[in-house]
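We emphasize that the prediction below concerns an isolated chain of 133 residues; any contacts that depend on oligomerization or on bound cofactors are therefore not represented. The input was used exactly as deposited, without trimming of termini.
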Amino acid sequence: MSTNSIRKRRAWFWYRMLICIVVSATIQLVAPWWSLIPVAMLIGFFTAPMNKSPFLAGFLALFLLWACWAFWIDLENNSILSERVIRLFPLPHNSLSLILLTGFLGGLINGMAMLTGDIFRRFFLPEEEKYYR
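Result of the prediction step, given as a token string:
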């Protein structure tokens, strides 16, 4: 594999992640949380193949988005809401644990959705075989 090919794959990783953050943040303003799943699947379907990194790109994109969003909300209400929610779960009693859990769950869901979209593209639009010609 050439260095140019590796650079293109790395660039697509960041493009895919940036597209996911921007579109998810926009959709999240007007639609429920689960509407991010079809969006991530479409992004995974329509962006270039990257082997194992669609999951990582989707996970990091929504982890960063939801963790930052939860942190912002937590700052805006002086941790009142997070302290009440933490009482419901067996978590350490600090806001950071809830923020990280929120980011992790969102990242996990989005990573699997983006990987599913990538797998669908590979199934329905098979790539040309480059070997044995």
